Amino acid sequence: MKSRTHPRKVAGKRVAVLGAGSWGTTFAKILADGGADVVMWARRPEVAREIQEAKRNSDYLPGVNLPLGVRATSRLDLALAGAEQVYVSVPSQSLRDNLKMFAPHLNANAIVISLMKGVEKSSGMRMSEVIAEVLQIDESQIAVISGPNLALEIAKEQPTAAVVSSTSLETAQAVASVARNKYFHSFVNTDVIGTEFGGVLKNLIAVAIGIVDGAGYGENTKASIITRGLVEMTDFAVAFGAHPETLSGLAGLGDLIATSQSPLSRNNTAGRLLGQGYHLNDVVNQMQQTTEGLASVGPILELARAKGVEMPIVEQVRQVLAGTLDPKDIAPHLTTDDEPQGERTKDGQAEGGSAVRRAFKRAFDQLRHGGRGAGSDRP
After folding, report:
1. Which listed residue (202, 222, 307, 346) is catalytic?
2. Which residue range or ranges hold the Glycerol-3-phosphate dehydrogenase NAD-dependent N-terminal domain (predicted)?
3. Of the four, 20, 75, 245, 377, which is 20 to 30 A from 252 by CA?
4. Domain boundaries of the chain, sorted by first residue
5. CATH number of the domain located at residue range(s) 194-368 in this protein
6. Are 80 and 49 in contact (CB under 8 A)?
7. Fold classification of 14-190 (topology level)
């Protein structure tokens, strides 16, 4: 696609961030550093008080100073008063109930942005779909943000990029013009399905990488799973209407690399503990925050079966979580087939790796050229 001129930064836009975990707090910093007028909502009054008075959130971002302009409250009416853009960062499985609390205080014309990377277990719905259903707003008022976004690195102002996606390009650009600063760059696209599913699916592959890492396997095994995992992600998302280019961009490959490789990733950490022999309940108890990948395995596999998409890596993760597969057996199961098959299993063609190479080339071109000509991610 053709590149576009960057939208002019909108200073002083009144925004709300709902949720004061590590990502919600980091995103409040991103917005404030970009010039927005930010009010955070924290469920716990003591967290809101620390952010408001000390400009710290020691529970989730220890050692990070927040901008002086970030305000916080535990009152939804105050957080949402006058907010033109509302960024939602709560656990995916509690989104529906939270939205019911938010609804009475939302400006009817506000843009609602999902910072979450999960699917609802009870329905299999993406976060933007839950938002549209509960709030009864048009999809053009909804945006999602995804990409290689490890919260602590960004809170320390290490440069990164993300994708803002909405069915309305105008909405995506309006959000991207606010959600950007000297260390955080936002691209835009209109492929909400691909952007959301990329953020969900990479968590599952990151859990698999953590498992084999914890079980003692090396870089070849992990690289194989990352690459084959990208194929599974792409096949799944395309089956639901996504553009394949999106999965080779920031919301797919970019996020997959960051989440699979970093010890800052909760999904990678959870997988590593599983690989070391810890039971699922023990892992959940050790994690201080929600690990979306663990919650998404079941509903993603149900959706995959409904579309006839094979996801052998995710299926092996499910078996490890269920205790029916020894973590040390996961890599041999992933690398052994009854008979040779094409690398691109979706179309049955043995392309000698060309599809995967194109995905990597597209992602690297995007980073090299600032997003120009990089599939569906447009600046």
Report:
1. 202
2. 15-171
3. 20
4. 14-190, 194-368
5. 1.10.1040.10
6. no
7. Rossmann fold (3.40.50)
